[in-house]
Design a protein that fits this description.
The chain has twelve helices and nine strands. The chain is of the alpha/beta class. It has two domains: 6-204, Vaccinia Virus protein VP39 (Rossmann fold); 211-274, rRNA adenine dimethylase, C-terminal domain (Helicase, Ruva Protein, domain 3, Orthogonal Bundle).
């Protein structure tokens, strides 16, 4: 088995006459060390079924095939999805361990085998919705490491009271414990992106409630941050009909109605949802 370096990536791209698409976030990793590092941080073992979103030309896929029992790779670009099995059979000793699915990750509803770990260099323009969608649809995903735009990584791993803290931090926190896992130099990509990248690691937590509680929590989070400078009683007034109604629910939940959403942990959002009257 060998991994893909800059020369191999350029050769594969030239053979496909590939012009990397900005709208699909196509920045390919040309440094195999970073792929090995991502797989190591993710703690992938021979017991794992790895899910990779956006395998592209296969850099990370090859590194994953060295450690996981099998890899499911979901790629939206038809040319890349078609070329990947050929690349993998050329470079990997275990091409049979790879399943390629040509699909939009946002529409992925079912898989024939259940993945245990998510490892991906995510397309930057859809990284948060893809991550949240996968955490919701595939409860067997117990952990993962994803590479995302640095600003997005800071938001996903943000703490209460900071400017990075907001909707992505809270929605991700419903599903998992999320933490920063290091920065990645722009020079490991082709083409070189005009944003910085970071790694984010997550570990799924026990679900705090059922689907109905999750939907309520997510609606409250969206309302609380729609105008993040507003106090909660006013930010939640349209959701609950008036600021008096919002204030009553907040007091019942044991939360000061003059606080802003950015002061609250995810557990406070559960308390608000559980304090709603039945008819909301
Ligand atoms: N994993 C490769 C690497 O590290 O070199 C490529 C990563 S590149 C940042 C993102 C990849 O995601 C591209 O191959 C792109 O075609 C694919 N992609 C973009 N949007 C997607 C979507 N909605 N579903 C699945 N794949 C997508």
């Amino acid at each position: 088995m060998s991994l893909l370096g800059a020369a191999a990536i350029r050769e594969l791209a030239a053979a496909l006459d590939l012009k990397p698409s900005k709208s699909l976030g196509q920045n390919f990793v040309i440094d195999s060390n970073i792929c090995t590092k991502i797989v190591r941080i993710a703690g992938v073992t021979q017991d794992d079924i790895a899910l990779e979103i956006g395998p592209g030309l296969g850099s990370l896929t090859l590194a994953l095939l060295e450690s996981a029992a099998s890899v499911i790779a979901v790629e939206i670009d038809h040319r890349l999805a078609t070329a990947l099995p050929l690349t993998i059979s050329r470079y990997s000793e275990h091409p049979e361990n790879l399943t390629v699915i040509h699909a939009d990750a946002l529409s992925l509803e079912e898989l024939h085998i259940q993945p245990t770990v998510l490892v991906a260099n995510l397309p930057y323009n859809v990284s948060v919705p893809v991550l949240l969608h996968l955490l919701e649809r595939f409860p067997t995903l117990r952990s993962g490491v994803v590479m995302v735009q640095a600003e997005v990584a800071d938001r996903l791993a943000g703490n209460p009271g900071t400017k990075e803290y907001g909707v992505p931090s809270l929605k991700a926190a419903w599903w998992a414990e999320v933490k920063a896992a290091g920065s990645v130099s722009r020079s490991v990509f082709w083409p070189v992106p005009n944003v910085d990248s970071k790694l984010v690691a997550f570990t799924r937590r026990a679900s705090p409630g059922d689907e109905s509680l999750r939907r309520k929590c997510f609606a409250i989070i969206d309302a609380a941050f729609a105008q993040r400078r507003k106090m909660l009683r006013s930010a939640l007034s349209s959701l609950y009909g008036s600021s008096a109604a919002a204030e009553e629910i907040l007091i019942r939940a044991g939360i000061d109605p003059t606080l802003r959403g950015e002061a609250l942990e995810i557990s406070s959002f559960y308390s608000i949802a559980l304090s709603e009257p039945d008819n909301v």
